[in-house]
Amino acid sequence: MTFPTASSTPHTALTIAGSDSGGGAGIQADLKTFTALGVYGGSVITAVTAQNTLGVQGVHEVPSSFVEEQLRSVLGSREGESEGSRDVMLWGAIKTGMLSSAPIINSITSFFEHRYPDGRPPNYVLDPVMVSTSGHVLLAEDAVQLMVNELVPRATVVTPNIPEAEVMLRWIKKKVAPEVKSAVTAVETGTTAQSATTPTSITSLSDMIDSARVLSQLGPAVLVKGGHRACSAAELFEVLGSETVQGESPEDEWKHFSGGWLRMDSSISRHLIGNQQHLAVDVLYLPPTLKVSGGIPQSNGSRGGDVYLFVKPYLHGQNFHGTGCTLSAAITASLAKDASIPSAVASARNYLHAAIEQAIPVGKGIPSLCHFHPVSSALVGPPLPSRPTTPPTAVLCPRVPPPLPPRETTPMRFSDFLISTCPDVWELFTLTHPFVRGIGDGTLDPEKFRFFIQQDYLFLTHYARCWSLVAFKERSAESIEKASMMAQAMAAEQKLHIQFCEEWRVTRAELESTREATANVAYTRYVCEKGISGDLLDLRTALLPCVLGYAVIGTFLLQETRIASEKGKGKVNPYAKWIETYGGEEYQSVAQEARDAVDQLFPILLPGVSLAAFGSGLLDTLPERLRELCEVFRQATALEVGFWNMSWERRE
Question: Does the global pTM surpass 0.85?
Answer without folding.
Answer: no
